[in-house]
Amino acid sequence: MKKRACRRGGIPLSSGAVMTDKNLLRSEGEQLDDILDELQRESAVREIAGWETGFANLDRALDGVRPGLYLLVGAPSIGKTAFAKQLLDQVAMKNNAAGVFFSFADSQQELRIKTLARLGSMDSREIRRGSAYLLHWYGVPRLRGGEPGEISPSWDRVRLAAEQAKGWLDSMYLIECDAKTTIASIAAQIAALKSEKNSGKIMVVIDDGQRLGDLKVPLSARYPIIVEQLQALARQLNTPLLAVWPDLADDAQLAPEAWAEKAAGADVILVLEDDPLRAKQLSEPKRAMMLNIVKNRGGERGKLAFEFHPAFANFVEVAPSP
Q1: Residue 251 domain-assigned?
Q2: Using an 8 Å Cβ cutoff, are 48 and 94 in contact?
């Protein structure tokens, strides 16, 4: 009868070979020095385990962006889409990664305007109108008639910022979704993109994720189902996936912490809300925001303070109030 070879770590071993080559099987204790040296080398050049977000405090709290499902929750019109787009842009820029944004609400044009407004520090409404006159809150009177063409530096700044961003914009993809879009079709598009880029470095954002699933099922019942499916997708593709959800509670808005149970399948849950205390210190159009990290399997929970400039679709981290 023929003896069957056993396998250790994918290497076929005969019964006589197991004892003759000690390198084939080493205990954790024997490898400990090598493991510690490797970890030390990595920690010497990296302060976080995952990808940089462009927000230093968020990096430290999350330990960087890693594969898994992230949920961004907040009331309608609070700035979730702007935050998600900025986060995706910054991940792509800082980590040489590809980014894909699936949108059920904003068009490609609107998403591009958000990015250009932030990069060029130019009011998104100016870009949308195709004119360069400034709004009254800048302290500059509005220009009339043919005068908009007199203020060209704003547009020059936008063009320059776009040219400087060309490198990472080449790895950014915007996809408009509709009623026919499913998690399966999203998975197929991500897989095709990963194959085309020949790289596993890709981050995904799905805006208005509540529109997925069977729309005949009540939203409250769809939440956990969609979350489980998106988490499975993130694991399958081994990529970070950020799903944006509106807080559409019929009664009073849920406390941020309640989302940790409502969407239990997510790896990280971020809840964006206004910060009324700090808002008193700001003048319009700036808004004081608080990002609540209510669930985080890989790091800390807590609160991060931001200032949001809606006109520029720009979030800036700030030190919290004492």
Answers
A1: yes
A2: no
Does residue 9 sit within a domain?
no
CA atoms of 142 and 107, how far apart (whole Å)? 28
Chain-centre distance for alpha carbon 174: 14
Q: Exposed, middle or buried: residue 322 (CB in 10 Å: 0-12, 13-18, 19+)?
A: exposed
User: What's the CATH number where 70 sits?
Assistant: 3.40.50.300
3-state SS class at 47: coil
Structural tokens at position 6 = 């056993």
* DSSP-derived secondary structure letter, 4: P
**Cα separations (Å) of 311 from 76, 118, 126, 287?**
17, 9, 9, 11
pLDDT (tens digit per residue) in 60-76:
999 999 999 999 999 99
Give the model's pLDDT for residue 283: 79
d(CA 208, CA 66): 21
Kindly report the backbone phi and psi dihedral angles of residue 208, in degrees, each rounded to the nearest multiple of 5, phi listed first.
55, 50
Tell me how many degrees the CA angle 243-246-252 measures, rounded to the nearest 5. Answer: 140
Instruction: Find tokens 């009540």 and name the residue.
Output: 218
Of 127, 134, 129, nearest in space to 151 by CA:
134
As for how many domains the chain has, the answer is 1
- Domain around 297: 53-122+155-318
Contact, 69 vs 259, CB < 8 A? Answer: no
pTM, two decimals, is: 0.79
> What separation in angstroms does the CA of 262 have from each of 5, 67, 80, 250?
50, 21, 19, 15
Kindly state whether residue 94 falls inside one of the protein's structural domains.
yes
Percent of the chain with pLDDT over 70: 79
Is residue 11 included in any domain, yes or no? no
Indicate the helix (H) or strand (E) that contains 45: helix 28-45
Residue 10: left if φ>0, alpha if ψ -120 to 50, beta else—which one? left
